[in-house]
Amino acid sequence: MIKKTVESAINEQIRREEFSSRLYLSMAIWCQSNGFPGAADFLYRQSDEERMHQLKFVHYVNDRGGKAALMALDAPKSSFDSLLTVFEQVMEHEHYITASINDLYEVTLNEKDYTTGNFLQWYINEQIEEESTMSTILDKINLVGDDKAGMFHIDKELAAMATAAISNAAV
Ligand code: OFO
């Protein structure tokens, strides 16, 4: 049976994952209506992933005899200055999520809940991967600056990344 302290710390993380999903959905909507269809596809896909992260926590809490809970969410930002701003904010948000997963891991250590600590390893690895992907995208956007042709290529690359992620998930 999961301890109450761990249960409520995970429920807080469920809120953050759900917010991440809505934030990326909002960014995808902005990209779609501002001429970046590839970035939109990529962020729609990220939004789905965050929802999957949320659900994985929900099942874990319930499977361990606890009760997952949903909380109120703030409305995500819906307007951005540029594609660069979007990905700067994605990066910032991923750093925040990494820190929150680390804090959650610390709770499991303090509570000697090694089973949950073990479960969290998946999220720790996922954050390493996501931070690295987002940082590569951000570097490329910074590199092209205001060059429209360069931006067009980045958008196409993001579309390809979204398609590849969908077909990997289907395998
Ligand atoms: Fe939930 O994976 Fe990053 O944020």
Quick structural gist:
The chain is an all-alpha fold and 171 residues long. The chain has 5 helices and no strands. The chain has a single domain (4-170), classed as Ferritin (Up-down Bundle).
What does this structure look like?
The protein has 171 residues and is an all-alpha fold. The protein has a single domain (4-170), classed as Ferritin, core subunit, four-helix bundle (Ferritin), CATH 1.20.1260. 81% of the residues lie in helices and 0% in strands. The chain contains five helices and no strands. The protein has helices at 4-32, 37-63, 83-110, 114-144, 148-170. α1 packs antiparallel against α2. The radius of gyration is 17 Å and the shape is elongated. The protein starts with a helix and ends with a helix. 30% of the residues are buried. The model has no long low-confidence stretch (mean pLDDT 96). The protein binds hydroxy diiron-OXO moiety. Residues 17, 20, 50, 53, 94, 97, 126-127, 130 line the site of hydroxy diiron-OXO moiety (OFO). Hydroxy diiron-OXO moiety binds next to α1, α2, α3 and α4.
Q: What low-confidence regions span 5 or more consecutive residues with pLDDT below 50?
A: none
Arithmetic mean of pLDDT: 96
What is the number of domains?
1
Q: Tell me the span between the first and last alpha carbons.
A: 34 Å
Structural class: mainly alpha
The molecules bound to the chains, other than polymers, are: hydroxy diiron-OXO moiety
- The shape, in one word, is elongated
CATH topology: Ferritin
